[in-house]
Amino acid sequence: MSFFRPKGAPRRNYDLYKGYSYYTPGVKGMFALLGMLLIGMLLGAIVTMILMPILGQKAFMAYGNLVIYPLQFVPAMIYASVKSKRNALFEDGWKLNSRNFGKWSPLSLVAIVIIMTLALAFASDIVNYANYKLTTRTPGMARFYDMISEAMKSMTGGPVWASILLVGIMAPVFEEWLCRGEVLRGLLRKVKPVWAIVISALFFAAIHGNPWQALNAFLIGCVLGYVYYKTGSLILTMIIHATNNTAAVVLANIDSLKDVDYFIDIMDKTTYGIFILISLVIVAAALMVFKGIPLRYPKGGNIDPEESIEVLPEA
Q1: Taking the complete model, does pTM exceed 0.70, yes or no?
Q2: Helix (H, G, I), strand (E, B), or coil: what is residue 54?
Q3: Which of 253, 255, 263, 282 could form a disulfide with 119 if both were Cys (CB 3.0 to 4.6 A apart)?
């Protein structure tokens, strides 16, 4: 990873992402990766049945997801790696992580995206609240919402450090690799940027598996997609994702907020409206920063081409 490498400094002789850079999936490839993810989920279910009796329900609920969650992505990672190695012989590669930041330093963009993400999380509260009210009008959907809420609480029901490791670190690393590093990077080579960003955000929403997380995931997925399109930085999108998820874990572990699902439930309407407006202004200002970063590759965004692999002649 070379996020903080000064411009002009020599590159390291290794790249954690290079094993995937020659696989740029289109829509068909996106569904193939989704299929691999579903296989990973099935594998996770099998491992759950094995570990639950061994660890006991209490210990498994606290720590089991630290094993099960990353395991779900293993089939997709193996699949993408195999495809990349094959394609390296006859296709151009495109880096999963670039650092095209225009006039901005990495640290300044990190500060901007952290503030932007916190503002976006608050601004999306009203949309998520309206979505909740609309979709839980029927008894069936209300029961489904309760089931999803319990499932989410189980992911953060262990020690705070385990919840942060799972939701604040693992999820951003694996989901950004899949949704931006693979799906969006591939789509940017195949379709118009706006459609690539929207489709990848829909994919991101779909893998969350329920309409309440999905709507918020789509909104933040569009922002993540735009940031990736303008910078090519997977590290930067991971920071955005990690900020959003870690903030949710921290709020869920504050005693006075444990039973609060939406800020609108605990704030008076005037104050709430003012904070929503301020949050929207912050998000808009941050997006204008990224809008000002010039595109080096207008078709595929600021994603750098991978250096070609030298094929040595047979002895």
Answers
A1: yes
A2: helix
A3: 282
